[in-house]
Write a structure and sequence with these properties.
Strand order of the largest sheet: 3-2-1-4-5-7-6-8-9
Number of strands: 20
Mean pLDDT: 91
Number of domains: 2
Structural class: alpha/beta
Low-confidence stretches: 194-205
Bound molecules: S-adenosylmethionine
Radius of gyration: 25 Å
Helix content: 25-40%
Number of helices: 15
């Protein structure tokens, strides 16, 4: 549920208060957002003449409470001379919206959302319903926003609080395009600490609030954080003009470190280096896993083996396995001996950095699937290059880059492939200590 302070902040973001508000609150819960909107509308000098709310809530118990909130909203409006009416639809928002009568009919001029979060399976009813509306997306929260945008009339405003994950990643590309093609981004508000917005819930994803207006030209974007007031940022800094993936970037840092990483000259392709995800998916290889090394095994490296930039192996006290049997069945999971730079795909909550790198220097090995490894055509890297690459990946600058340009706490191989790097010679110089990160960015 959205805390009152945040709901009020979201309601305050609406620029235009239409004379006759037609408000959508999809996944309304107990009605915190509608209540905040009504309070805001009553407070404004240009208060509306009427407010008509359509609230969807699938959970019957929530919907009962929602009825009470709507009654309170009506009373509040009556005090301010605003005509209030509402419809609480106790149904699935996505499925109901795909019904022929509702599909494609812009009905609202305001929408305020804190949508549910959850994966949408390929064969689900939701997926079919969304497809019938011309929407391709993989999560309920982006589905809610996409459907709401369809139902918004020209000039209508939408304010939503959601995880940040839609800002990058190929899964959300079609959602980003739909939003950016149909609407102008007016404001983005980023919660910098993971739990600021929902202190009481165990919400791992970082949250953000965004404010868009349908059908109007894009101008500068007001970018704020829970720590810094809004500043106007050129749209080209948010979505790069030539970005084929239309990533939404959140340049919230002050000193531009991340932007300097972005300006570095090389990609991994230029460096002749590749990054791959560890091939050992442990639950698919259980019969071959060994707690400790033996005659017929090779090391199995997990994130637990990371120790201050190096690999500490074996770790006998670890719950994870330390070795994998080396036999014809596991041969395809192995990597030849050599020097590799490994990065964790998921950072633990207590970890200071988004990206954590370590150097593996040893014989034939199995890298577990929670790791990515950098290699040259499947083989190891020269040690100085590996040292430089690891120092670069562990740097403050790269950390800043991922905080700004990545919506989630996970750093996948695709994210690493879109990162910019110093030249090979510079990385080697960093590895030998002839140069420092401060010289490079
Ligand atoms: C994250 S909560 C937010 C509630 C409320 N908007 C708020 O901000 O406090 C999302 C709500 O959506 C409801 N919900 C989940 N799936 C839904 C669906 N398919 N259709 C309508 N409501 C749904 C949940 O029951 C829950 O109350």
């Amino acid at each position: 549920m959205t805390p009152g302070r945040i709901a009020a902040f979201m309601a305050g973001m609406f620029e235009n208060m239409p004379t006759d508000v037609r408000l959508l609150d999809a996944g309304a819960g107990m009605g915190a957002l509608t209540a905040a909107f009504v309070t805001e509308a009553c407070r404004r000098a240009d208060r509306p003449a009427s407010i008509t709310v359509t609230a969807y809530e699938v959970d019957p118990q929530m919907a009962d409470i929602l009825d009470g909130t709507m009654q309170a909203c009506e009373d509040r409006c009556a005090e301010s001379g605003i005509t209030f009416s509402c419809q609480v639809i106790r149904d699935d928002y996505i499925l109901r919206s795909a019904e022929p009568l509702l599909a494609h009919s812009p009905a609202f001029n305001c929408a305020i959302l804190n949508p549910p979060y959850g994966k949408i399976n390929v064969s689900s009813e939701w997926r079919h319903a969304l497809r019938s509306l011309g929407i391709e997306t993989v999560n309920l929260y982006t589905a809610f926003v996409a459907v709401a945008l369809n139902q918004l009339e020209h000039g209508g405003e939408l304010v939503a609080i959601t995880p940040r994950s839609f800002c990058n990643g190929s899964y959300y590309e079609s959602f980003r395009r739909q939003m950016l093609d149909t609407s102008a981004l007016l404001a983005l508000h980023v919660f910098e600490s993971r739990k600021t917005a929902f202190k009481d819930d165990d919400v791992l994803q970082e949250n953000m609030i965004f404010h868009v207006r349908k059908g109007t030209p894009q101008a500068e974007v007001a970018l704020s954080t829970d720590a810094a007031p809004a500043r106007a940022v050129p749209f080209a800094e948010i979505v790069r003009p030539n970005d084929r993936h239309a990533f939404i970037r959140l340049p919230v840092d002050g000193d531009g470190l991340a932007a300097r990483v972005q300006a570095l000259p090389c990609t991994l392709v230029d460096l002749g280096i590749k990054v791959s995800t560890g091939r050992v998916v442990d639950f698919r290889a259980t019969e071959h896993l060994r707690k400790m090394p033996g005659d017929d095994t090779v090391p199995l490296i997990y994130p637990t083996h990371f120790d201050n930039g190096a690999i500490r192996w074996p770790v006998p006290e670890s719950k994870k396995h330390n070795a994998i049997a080396d036999n014809p069945e596991t041969a395809s999971l192995m990597v030849p001996g050599g020097v590799y730079v490994l990065t964790k795909r998921f950072s633990a909550k207590e970890e200071k950095r988004r990206l954590v790198a370590a150097i593996y220097d040893g014989g034939r090995v199995g890298f577990e699937n929670h790791l990515n490894y950098f290699h040259e055509n499947g083989k190891g890297l020269p040690m100085d290059l590996a040292r430089g690459l690891s120092a670069f990946l562990n740097s403050e600058a790269v950390d800043q880059y991922f905080r700004i340009f990545s919506g989630h706490t996970q750093v996948n191989a695709t994210d690493l492939r879109s990162l910019h790097f110093p030249t090979r010679a510079q990385l080697i110089a960093l590895g030998t200590g002839e140069t420092t990160m401060a010289d490079l960015v």
